[in-house]
Amino acid sequence: MGYHIPAYHRRMGKSSQRARSPAPKASAKTAPRRHWALALATVLCCAVLVSLLVERPEQLATPPAPARYLDDRAGLVSWQFAAAKNQYLEYLSRIVRIAQVNVVILPRSPVQDVEEFCVQAATAWKIGAAGADNGLALFVFRDDQKVRLEVGYGLESVITDAVAGRLLAQTLIPAFARGQFETGIEDFLETLNKTLEASEAADRRASHSIGMIPFVMTVLRNAPNIAHKVLRAFVDAEIQGRIVLSLFGFTLAGLAVYAVAGILPAVPAVAMLPWRLYTSPTLRNATRAGIAEQFAPRNFFARPPPIFAGLFEELQMGDIVNALYLLTAAVTGIAFLFVGSGLFMDGLGRFGGAGATLMWPAPAAPGG
Prior knowledge:
Blueprint (H helix, E strand, L loop, with lengths): L6 H14 L9 H24 L16 E3 L6 H18 L3 E7 L7 H11 L10 E7 L4 E7 L8 H17 L3 H17 L14 H10 L1 H14 L2 H25 L2 H6 L1 H6 L2 H5 L2 H7 L2 H4 L5 H9 L2 H28 L6 E9 L9
Parallel strand pairs: 1-2, 2-3
Antiparallel strand pairs: 3-4, 4-5
Helix pairs in contact: 2-9, 3-6, 5-6, 7-16, 9-16
């Protein structure tokens, strides 16, 4: 009669064997997937947190859009002057087409932050052409004795903050200080027209297409203003829009880090390229007969010439080729990114806060 092992002990024996058996190791394929999943989850959490933590500012009330190129809502100039300058500004904006220029005269600024009001008003009024963003808005606040020249994104490289301040200081401010408002506006428009005609913007007025390299250089030169504009769009967006922008920003930052990490190793390789060519063992040991043998049709089509493989390794051409590939991809990506953004971003005449704000002193009393 055989010894009978109870079912309870059999189950315990199997459990102890399972406990003693080593845990299966994670396969080599699942580890990278876990890392990518962890990275994506981290990026998503960061995007949601950033979107929720930033408070959305209250939007300023924007006055109605100007019905004319020179819209005097404060009675600062005569109607004859306003009508004449309205025709002149229409000529500059529709015929010359370097920029769309509007002059808006208000009794006072509705808020204390004049710059913020002017940016939102010029953007809401859609001053400027789509894609070109070539709007220029001159705001005159009569009672505040302030003037603000708001420059569209497309003209920020031409009418910089310094140029905008100089235009106001040399034309408007001296005349306004004497109480000669019409003279100041006329001098300003004349000087502005000369500045635009002499600028690089005049060469592109007949065509919206420019070369790839000049376009990328323009984008890089205006990178601070672009960052400011993106930050403003992020702050003004709803939660869903913020999450999308955050995910896009984190992805773009990751690609930029990847590109830089691939380009940097090529810098010493390029710097040392002449010396490595001079001291190359492959070139030093090469003979005319050996090279001819390698490039013989029967050998050349069978495998790459060994001299190529040796030079490729000695000169670190792998790092250089990889860097060129990443650099080309980065330049192409920047171009398509900003060209595409101009296509799907709504509205005309985008403004990024560039310009200048000045005050004029009250006219001196007669005999004072």
